[in-house]
Amino acid sequence: MITAKAKFQGKLQSDEIYIKLAEGKIEKAGCSFCLNELMFDAPVSGTIYGTLLNYKGALELLGEAVHEAPYKAAPKAPVLYIKPANTINSHSRPVILPEGVEALEIGAALGIVIGRTATRLKEEDALDYVAGYTIVNDVSVPHESVYRPAIRQKARDGFCPVGPWIVQREAIQDPDQLYTRVYINGDLRQENTTANLIRPIAKLLAEVTDFMTLNEGDVLLAGVPENAPLAKAGDQVRIEIEGLGALENIVLSEGQAKEESQ
């Protein structure tokens, strides 16, 4: 049984829950529930920071272009971006496919939830500042450049489902050895592991906090693996991360979303 924090729709505070992943059961306030019986809200409250090119395969895909303008060299420090508040979405809520866009990139990411103010951390102490881990779908409109901030592609409303919960740090023995799988309509479309990170979790935290403070409740994404699968309108997306459970969302066109809201 895993201890986690979850936020439920209609409630202001998070609740402590106990998860039986193999059984798909949740214990809350002494009662047992199936996952589909509960309506989750996003369990995070701080700023969400994404990390580009932190999977070895993602950097390798750039090939020789990484040595040409505007890059000129492989990143010497973490390359960050922000998923602003308007992007935050939750488990089981739809992701809207913008008009004129054929498909969306599904960015499976481990979310590192900060537990206390973190500034200039030492790598050996960095994990002590982590409250827990969650699953994040860093949704994007497909694009090529990683040089200019992809605001139009990454910062659309609802483009950052998070959850369903935050698993406490102690429940994850090694965050650098977690398998990530993406299923679309039940078919396995991507598989990777955090063992392939260029900067493992503790190193990433140390390098990021060397130049900026992370506050309690902030979330730092470990990175998105290469070859992010595409999802179209009507597709059911499921991201699994070992030890954390699964985050599920459906992709709807703007027209489908309007019909469902009526």
UniProtKB/TrEMBL annotation:
Residues 47-251 form the Fumarylacetoacetase-like C-terminal domain. The keyword Metal-binding applies. Pfam families: FAA_hydrolase (PF01557). InterPro entries: Fumarylacetoacetase-like_C (IPR011234), Fumarylacetoacetase_C_sf (IPR036663), HPA_isomer/decarb_N (IPR012686). This is 5-carboxymethyl-2-oxo-hex-3-ene-1,7-dioate decarboxylase. Keywords: Metal-binding.
